[in-house]
Specification:
With 131 residues, the protein is an alpha+beta fold. The protein has one helix spanning 105-130; strands at residues 2-7, 12-28, 31-46, 51-67, 82-97.
Length: 131
């Protein structure tokens, strides 16, 4: 993900947002390919306004067959010894961006303290989950 902010004189923030999702694809002639999805957009938001972006959606379909080995492959009667299941998994990536314009050293100190608090709380929560 790439974000390029520009602040104008009224504390509006122009954001150029580049978003990419990639995952390994099929192997072609011994080389792994990649499936890449990207979104590029440009928006203008106010200071402290939350921008919500979505749109990188994916649907994965999975079909599986199972059954009693040997018997599931019999002609006609094999259906009695096997089962088939289908599943669909839909996902959508949502991104929330809230730009904060820092005008002076007090704003910078406040933003730094807020980030430290958030990181400390995340670290504490992570350690609690790991037990």
């Amino acid at each position: 993900m790439g974000i390029e902010p520009k602040i104008n004189s009224d504390n509006f923030v122009n954001l150029k947002v580049n978003q990419e999702i990639s995952k390994p694809g099929p192997v072609i002639q011994g080389t792994t390919s990649f499936n890449i999805r990207t979104i590029n957009t440009e928006v203008v938001v106010k200071d402290n306004q939350v921008l919500v972006m979505g749109g990188l959606m994916q649907t994965l379909s999975n079909e599986s067959n199972s059954g009693v080995p040997g018997l599931k492959d019999l002609p006609f009667f094999g259906r009695l010894f096997r089962s088939q299941s289908n599943s669909n998994n839909k996902t959508e990536l949502m991104i929330f961006i809230a730009p904060h314009v820092i005008n002076n050293i007090f704003d910078a100190d406040t933003a730094t303290a807020q980030i430290k608090d958030r990181l400390f709380n995340l670290k504490k929560e992570f350690h609690l989950k790991d037990g």
